[in-house]
């Protein structure tokens, strides 16, 4: 197949994919002001937010408008939602008092039994968020509006962890078909769901607050960015997000579209496998950082879509602290390499997932060219996601480039989950860091927790456990008639405040 034929073939396939995504029989091309048409950039494969998809952003994006948590993070602070208040009767107990009069979409009242069942299902599901609750010893319900979470060690992360736990009705959780059309106490309930293709939400008639301004939300999966942009311009969808930098400038020039760009809890990171030479030597790890001009990379690859990072997690996250930057200094890089016994550099590899993130290949190739300039020859390894993940967990790699998201807005989610020696995610082990992270996790006083995470972040940064190059921005695009969109730092937009003129 020649070059021209391949281009025609690709355009044809993209066109068919877009047509299929927009051709759901019961809702095709609906343009009513009561319907918000959303194109999600990643397929929603499941609505079960308690098991394997508990940290899956597509699932959370939908379910955060259906299942509500006890507490919510808003403007950087944890605030009550389904809970009215909480206290610590002792260091191993968190007691929550629920608001009275809250009902689920089926009319049944919210009780402590629902909270217990929801948390227990998350723990038993052994998904990616279950580890946050490893210290839970018992969940008790002294009465219908009181829940006690008892732990075997002090656990200061309970509030931030609860912000990720949507509460479902206990009786419904026993139904194996519940997550085909789940409902909760939120402003919407699920009306239709076709895995990997389509989700429709409709207003929850039992919602206690003001009804959402839009009666129905429809999520369609359109994988190609160009397909989503075309659908927006043709008034076939109303909103999408997750645009790469090269598309943002193009969309900004459109007379019919609005672009919202905002910081998120997401960042790029490049880990070294510190259990493999030469990365056992901190001087080698630091040298590779000094060899990179991050400001130049931001300007040419991520202009307007990222900021040079100031720590291992973005600064808006609870527990983040600004660190001393690594200056671009090739001579210092060569000096550190020579001190470590590599005056002529060395050869190594770096892997990443082909489905990872914005400009991942161009970013990797740019890093590799900087390292080559100081004598480090890096062989690129772009892998299918499943293969990349298998190698990552088996520590079968020299270095890896990826994107992370501290979705709870709390440093513990990233720092303790990934950098404790027992996690063994990148072959790095540091007893001093372990002590800080465990103390921070156990500390109930939130100000003290923040101080401990700041110290932990400094160790991770100064020891160059990885390179933390960029904090990412999110780009949402919507038609001009859409109003009320509110940016979310998690990078998972909500639409319960959005309407169409």
From TrEMBL:
Pfam families: SBP_bac_5. Its main location: periplasm. Residues 78-423 form the Solute-binding protein family domain. It is found in: Periplasm. GO terms for cellular component: ATP-binding cassette (ABC) transporter complex; outer membrane-bounded periplasmic space. Keywords: Signal, Transport. InterPro entries: Peptide/Ni-bd, SBP_5, SBP_5_dom. The keyword Thylakoid does not apply. GO terms for biological process: peptide transport. Residues 1-30 form the signal peptide. The keyword Transport applies. One of its GO terms (molecular function) is peptide transmembrane transporter activity. Belongs to the bacterial solute-binding protein 5 family. PANTHER family: PERIPLASMIC BINDING COMPONENT OF ABC TRANSPORTER, PERIPLASMIC OLIGOPEPTIDE-BINDING PROTEIN-RELATED. This is ABC transporter substrate-binding protein. It comes from Devosia sediminis.
């Amino acid at each position: 197949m020649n070059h021209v034929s391949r281009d025609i073939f690709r355009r044809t396939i993209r066109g068919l994919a877009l047509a299929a995504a927009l051709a759901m029989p019961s809702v095709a091309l609906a343009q009513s002001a009561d319907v918000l048409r959303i194109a999600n950039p990643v397929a929603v494969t499941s609505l079960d937010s308690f098991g394997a998809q508990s940290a899956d952003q597509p699932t959370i994006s939908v379910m955060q408008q259906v299942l509500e948590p006890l507490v919510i993070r808003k403007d950087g602070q944890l605030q009550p939602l389904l809970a009215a208040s909480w206290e610590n009767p002792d260091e191993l107990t968190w007691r929550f008092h629920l608001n009275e009069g809250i009902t689920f979409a089926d009319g049944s009242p919210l009780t402590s039994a629902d909270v217990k069942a929801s948390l227990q299902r998350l723990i038993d599901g052994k998904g990616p968020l279950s580890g946050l609750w490893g210290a839970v010893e018992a969940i008790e319900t002294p009465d219908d509006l009181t829940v006690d979470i008892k732990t075997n060690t002090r656990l200061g992360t309970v509030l931030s962890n609860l912000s990720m736990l949507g509460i479902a009705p206990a009786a419904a959780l026993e139904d194996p078909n519940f997550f085909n059309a789940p409902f909760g106490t939120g402003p919407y309930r699920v009306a239709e769901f076709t895995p990997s293709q389509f989700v429709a939400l409709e207003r929850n008639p039992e919602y206690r607050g003001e009804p959402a301004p839009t009666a129905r939300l429809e999520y369609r999966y359109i994988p190609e960015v160009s397909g989503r942009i075309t659908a927006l311009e043709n008034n076939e969808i109303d909103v999408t997000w997750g645009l790469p930098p090269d598309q943002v400038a193009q969309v900004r020039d459109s007379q019919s579209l609005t672009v919202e760009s905002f910081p998120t809890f997401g960042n790029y990171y490049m880990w070294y496998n510190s259990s493999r030479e030469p990365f056992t030597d901190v001087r080698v790890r630091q040298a590779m950082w000094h060899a990179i001009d991050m400001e130049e990379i931001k300007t040419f690859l991520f202009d307007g879509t990222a900021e040079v990072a100031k720590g291992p997690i973005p600064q808006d996250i609870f527990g983040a602290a600004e660190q001393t930057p690594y200056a671009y200094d090739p001579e210092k890089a060569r000096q550190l390499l020579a001190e470590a016994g590599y005056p002529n550099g060395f050869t190594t590899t770096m892997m990443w997932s082909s489905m990872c993130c914005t400009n991942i290949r161009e970013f990797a190739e740019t890093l590799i060219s900087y390292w080559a300039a100081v004598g480090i020859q890096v062989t690129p390894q772009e892998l299918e996601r499943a293969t990349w993940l298998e190698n990552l967990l088996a520590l079968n790699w020299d270095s890896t480039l990826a994107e992370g998201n501290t979705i709870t807005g709390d440093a513990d989610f990233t720092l303790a989950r990934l950098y404790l020696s027992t996690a063994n995610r990148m072959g790095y082990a540091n007893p001093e860091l372990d002590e800080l992270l465990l103390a921070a996790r156990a500390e109930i006083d939130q100000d003290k927790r923040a101080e401990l995470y700041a110290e932990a972040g400094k160790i991770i940064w100064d020891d160059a456990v990885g390179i933390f190059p960029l904090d990412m921005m999110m780009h949402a695009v919507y038609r001009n008639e859409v109003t009320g969109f509110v940016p979310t730092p998690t990078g998972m937009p909500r639409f319960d405040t959005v309407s169409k003129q």
